[in-house]
Prior knowledge:
Elements: H1 2-28, E1 34-37, E2 96-103, E3 119-127, E4 141-145, E5 150-151, E6 157-160, H2 164-171, E7 179-189, E8 195-202, E9 211-216, E10 228-234, E11 239-240, E12 244-253, E13 260-268, E14 273-275, E15 281-287, E16 292-301, E17 309-320, E18 326-338, E19 343-349, E20 353-355, E21 360-368, E22 374-383, E23 392-398, E24 402-410, E25 416-427, E26 433-445, H3 472-515
Parallel strand pairs: 1-9, 11-18, 20-26
Antiparallel strand pairs: 2-3, 3-7, 4-8, 5-7, 6-7, 8-9, 10-12, 12-16, 13-15, 13-17, 14-16, 17-18, 19-21, 21-24, 22-23, 22-25, 25-26
Amino acid sequence: MKQFMKTVLGMTIALALVFSLGTIAFATGTAPTTVTASPSPTPTPTPTPTSTPTSTPTLPPDTGSSSGQTQTTSDKNTSSDDAISPEVFNKGDPAFISTYRVTDLNGNEITGNINPGDHFNLSVYIRDESNIITYMKLTDIKAKINSSSFSCATLGEANYWAQADDIEAMEDGELPIQQYWILFRDVTYNGGSTDFQFDLSYDGVTSMPVQHMTLTLNQMSSGHTPSLIVREANYGGQVYAGQEFNLTLTLFSSIGEESLTDVIVSLNLPEDVSLVSSKQSICISSMEPRSTATATFRLTTASNIAASVANIGVNMNATGTSSYTAVSGTGTVSIPISQPERFEITGVEAPGTMMLGEEQYVTLTYVNKGKREISNLSASISGENLANPGQSQYLGNVASGTEKSVEFSVMANEVGVMNGTITLTYENNKGEEVSLTKDYSITVEEMPVWDQPIMDDPSLYPDQTQTTGVPLWILLVAGAAVIVVLVVVIRKVKKIRARKAAEKELLEEASVEELQPVYRPIPPAAAREEPVQEKAPENKE
């Protein structure tokens, strides 16, 4: 009785919140979301026999994966009395299709083609967290086909997709329904599009919009002409930026009553991916029903490609040999692109020889020539005859285009040869640890020992008693001659300077006299003598 009262109380609170939020959603005009799934041509889940009727597909086994396998729901509430906060109401992700299964009306899986007019059962497995807070009943989930290519007399039937304990909790309203599968019984394929579309709605919950789901069924055939699909793509396992590679596509022609001719295969290439050759498409002359053919393209990527995955579209077109029906197919190949790791050690510097007991240094230089940063770089040194082993340094991250160096001190234990290795360890862009090493070698010699101080070594000084080859008297005479010459030269220089000084002084005095005015006295008038004029002799004749 207590448990019943808890359940009634929890449902009353939930209905009140649903009504209030539904009114808000109606007023704001919440738009429905669209979810598209593209499952593989051959579904992988294996049914588990149960007591359900043979015409109803059974629940896949519980492996904990999300590809059509049973999953254990989370966020389980332990009490139905817990209050539901309006702030977190309807905050889950929209529904998406995990996988699907096509069977005949007796429950046997269909692996071949389904032609127009054929009947089948379709089970669609859905992961749905949009109702994580609502705790609705399984009967509230409605699914209705919304495609002219398919028809069904009834709505899809929702079924639990969980473990037995969780199913019991869902039925008691203690756990939300986050994953389930829907059975569409006795579906008729009318021909045309192979996209199975249906609307997913929640009866009585107006705050949760209708979700439009689309599922491409590769078992459908528009007639007796085979269809084309990409069964396999091979690109060599690893593609690096800036390198060429081969993309080999394996095409498959499905069941049919006629062959295909003039099968044309072409690619839709994304940015930074291009064809090496000029051949834009490949033609395959013919393909029999249920046969395969290969087409190989030579591609290359730009060295500075930004995307880590290249999505390449594949287009296939062909014609039926008898009915001349045009057949087309598409596919997508996703190729991961890796940047080459161009982190290198450029060199190591070490002394060729060192003395025992002496400290020397070994320097290693490295550079990152790649396009991406190198993370968590560290360096360590080891070696034989190394007196100070165990040295290590953390160098951090190295940006693209950066060159740096690391230095270690070394000392020897004994005379001989010191052989060692410097190791660089870092993480690449995949999170993998990578190591680079560089060896070094140094010859260790004994430290020299002196018997007496070096200044007392007589061999360092010449014998003063020994003659030098030039007699001493010649050196004395030459020295005296040099002194005499110097004295004469000095005297002559002094005389020349004295004479020039005297001449300069005379010139200065003469200049002063010429500039001074000359004053002469004027005699009185009586003292002036008249000039005597000589008379001319008289002519006495």
